[in-house]
Structures are given as structure tokens and as C-alpha cells.
Amino acid sequence: MSGPGISVVICAYTEDRWEDILAAVSSVHAQSRPALETLLVVDHNETLRERLAKEYKDSSEGSVVRVLANAGPRGLSAGRNTGIAAARGEIVAFLDDDAVAERDWLRHFAEAYADERVMAVGGRTVPVWASGRRPDWFPEEFDWVVGCTYRGLPRGRVRVRNVLGGNASFRRSAFDAAGGFATGIGRDGDKRPLGCEETELCIRLSRARPDAVLLIDDRAVIHHRVPEIREHFRYFRTRTYAEGLSKALVARSVGAEKGLESERRYATRVLPAGVARGLRDALLARPGGAGRAGAIVAGVLTAAGGYVVGSVRARRGGTTFRVPAVGVAARE
């Protein structure tokens, strides 16, 4: 196998996703470009950690699976940092525990790293709806609500401000330069679904390494399961509000100009076009047109409300986060 070794990190927290976790690991083992190792990081659930350790205790040299306990505070960011610190590969890739990767996922990542300036590569995440189909009212522009690639992102292999964490990879030296994922900003099991930790990391990385190139290659595809509860408007509203809270934290960390750079284009171009398509479909009596237009407007308003609340909390010092060292300095 030529090219850089790739460690794949999968963070898990609940036995409810047992079959999904096994499927995620199997999809890594089926890659056309083999991973150096798969790291399963379990978030403060000893029962799950022991069960996974037993499941993969006989993993062969060609499909090494290591099961680790999250060494930091509860949450996805600390779990990822645990995986980064333990990884042996030159590249560290991240896969959600309820997703499966297509066969050439790692091959497309590896090809992009032939350019030494490339510090991060993300891919395309396709939703797999529990009901079997997208809800009529659910706008593609808001697929990020369910952790998937949304309408408005550029196509092909292109430079971006940030990659999306559930389908992403980083060069190890990126963490040496910028530190790890900030704790206190991202997800914590089933609590309010905050996010944006990968956005904050990527902006921080670009500041630490101004020559860094960050890419999305939409040929690096994973399929992400969307449970039935996330197909409802209640979750949509909760998630968009939480995104506003998270964006306020990112803006506090890196400044509003950089922290909201991509969001301005999204809000002024992508979303108005989505509303127009929804209204057009409504006039043509196509299913869900009015609902999609309304959902876009509601999503903008709830995200804006979350941003205002998050900004007030940040100014009052009510919400904090920490950037841990996970690179060379942390290992010495």
C-alpha cells in the first residue's frame, strides 16, 4: 500500500447503535484502499466499551480494531481527541458511528494528500431516511440538520473554509499546529445537539497555517442513517436553534468576520433560492413546496434566535470551551 497510512476514528456512546457501529467498522474493512487501523472511542460507557472490546479482540493484522475509552470529558470533541492522540497514521479520518462509507472513501481522501499543502479533506454525506424517503417538507438546504451534505455546498474537489466532522480527515501535523477539537462546543450524547466544532478547528488551523489547503471531495461518500425522530419538525427546530448557539461560540473564538464568512453566502444566496423553489413548487401543486419554503424561513429565524442567545451568554462568560493539545507537544 503506497501513500500515507490512514487511521479511522469512530466515536460511539450508546448500545442502541450496536448494529450501526458494526456496520461502520465493516465498511472501513471493505475499503479499496485499506486503513492502517480503526479506532473505536467509547464515550463514558463502560458496558459498551467492554462489549466492543470483546467483539474485536481477535481482529487480524489486516483489519486492526482498537477499542478505547474517551480519556477526556464527556462529548464528541473529547472522543475525537482521544482517537487523534492514539492514532498511528499520518492521516486521521473520522466516520460517524451511524454511517457506512463507500468502498473508495479512503482512496479519494489519500489521493488529495499527494499535495503537501493539503491539511484536511472532507467528503459527501448522503442521508438514509428511516421512513425510506425524505419528508416532503424537509429542504435539502438544511440537510446539515441531520449531519449530511446540504444543497449549496460546491461540487467536485474544491477548496472550502471547513470540512464537516462526520465525514472528514486531517493530516496529523494539522493537530500539531492548531490543537484538537474544542471541548464544550460540540455534541454530548443525547443532550442538545450542538455542533460547529469542526468549523472552529478548521478556522483555527487556517490561522495557524496560512498556507493550509482544506478540501471537500464529493466522491468520498458515506451514507448516514437518519432516525425517525429526526424527520420531525420539532427536531429540526431544536437543531437549528442549537446551531445558532454554536455559531455564537465560534464567532467568539475566531471573530464574526471569519466565523460567519460562509454563512453569509448561504443566507443571502442559497436560502432565498430555496424559498423561491418551494413557492414555485407550491404554485405548481407539487408536494411539500410550501412546507419547504416555510421550513427554510423557520430555520433561519430559530438559528438567528440561538445566535443572539449564545452571543449574550458568551459575553457574560456563561459558556466556555477549551482547546486541548493532541499533537506532538501533548505526546512528549
UniProtKB/TrEMBL annotation:
Residues 7-176 form the Glycosyltransferase 2-like domain. It comes from the Bacteria. Keywords: Glycosyltransferase, Transferase. Its EC number is 2.4.-.-. SUPFAM superfamilies: Nucleotide-diphospho-sugar transferases. GO terms for molecular function: glycosyltransferase activity. Pfam families: Glycos_transf_2. This is Glycosyltransferase family 2 protein. It comes from Streptomyces violaceochromogenes.
